[in-house]
Amino acid sequence: MLPYNFLLNSRAKIVELETLLTSIPAIAPEGGGDGETKKCDALEAWLRENGFENIERFEAPDSRVSSGKRPSLVVTIPGKDTSKNIWVMAHIDVVPTGDLSLWKSDPWKVVEKDGKLYGRGVEDNQQGLCSAVFAGLYLLKNGILPANTVKLLFVADEENGSEYGVKWLLKNTKLFNKADLILIPDGGDSLGQTIEIAEKNLLWLSLHVMGKQTHGSRPDSGANACLAASALSLELHKLESIFNKHDSLFEPDYSTFQPTKREKNVDSINIIPGEDWFCMDCRILPCYALSDVLAKVDQACRKIEAEYGVKVEYTCPQKSESPATPVESEVVQKLAAAIKKVHGLEARFIGIGGGTVGAEFRREGYNAVVWSTLDDQAHQPNEYCLVENLIKDSETLIEMFIES
Hints:
Layout: H1 3-9, H2 11-22, H3 37-49, E1 55-61, E2 69-77, E3 81-91, E4 111-113, E5 116-118, H4 126-141, E6 148-155, H5 166-172, E7 181-184, E8 194-199, E9 201-210, E10 214-215, H6 225-237, E11 256-262, E12 271-272, E13 275-284, H7 290-308, E14 311-315, E15 319-320, H8 330-343, E16 348-352, H9 358-363, E17 368-370, E18 384-386, H10 387-402
Parallel strand pairs: 3-6, 3-7, 7-17, 8-16
Antiparallel strand pairs: 1-2, 2-6, 4-5, 5-18, 9-13, 9-14, 9-15, 10-12, 11-13
Helix pairs in contact: 1-10, 2-4, 4-10, 6-7, 8-10
């Protein structure tokens, strides 16, 4: 049976799996949830009932959840060539619903309307998960031996930093080898054309400016931490003109240094604050090393200290840099060929602002790409998945699996 016909005939089963997964919230403790165990149990049971036998479970310990564990599943489909694997990695966890008044239906019950499935997680990342599952089912039900061994990986903790998911697996297992092809169906565009091969380096700064509190009428007797913090945020923003290269792979095509969150300092308008706190979100082209950026951050802090008579301390809540996956790499070329065959489109290669698990793999020397066909509904109220997108993505994965 041709892949598209098989997938079209499996539509009811696709909706069934989406409905099952959506009905079991898998929210991290950071979001007030109890982790992924119940959802992972249900997924594993469904996979076994539908013919998958080679399933391994890996559990990162986490005392914050009732099960004490954050589970990930690996489903293996042996191939002709076992020297390298084709990985498709989706995540089990979802984000909280947000303001329920913005939802038109129960976010934990799938509603189907006009070819769309509505519910929390249906796109992020159950579309990628289900497309991988049904691509695997096509191989199993039709007795097809893929060109390479296929590994379907369903991980925990993607939404909150991957400490109990991909990062834990990379550190505590030997699942991956450098020849593997790694595809993450968790980002893309409505045509299924863009392949994300790179991320900007990510630097978050949390800055604490310490001066001397005084009365609003006597700035001469204090050191205004708010004024110094404002000057420092502008000084750090100026780093955009120092790290000023452009790269058309990214949008925007330059490095950004943006002040964002500010904390409360004083309770009254007539108090000059002695302390002030603010944050910067910096997304830096990968041609620049974060060590060089931080040297300039230090320089800016010392300048403001001298000019305003304050002291500045900072921490880096997030700091991440990773190389790009080469366009000529096998995973990029195989995916581009599959997109051309299934979608009839020439793939377009892009970089993004940063923040996917692709960077975790690239940092460790693995070639990884992020791709999917979606309307970018992640984390929104009334999140939906187009069933046709899911089917097309599954068909594209099948093409990658069977193409020699």
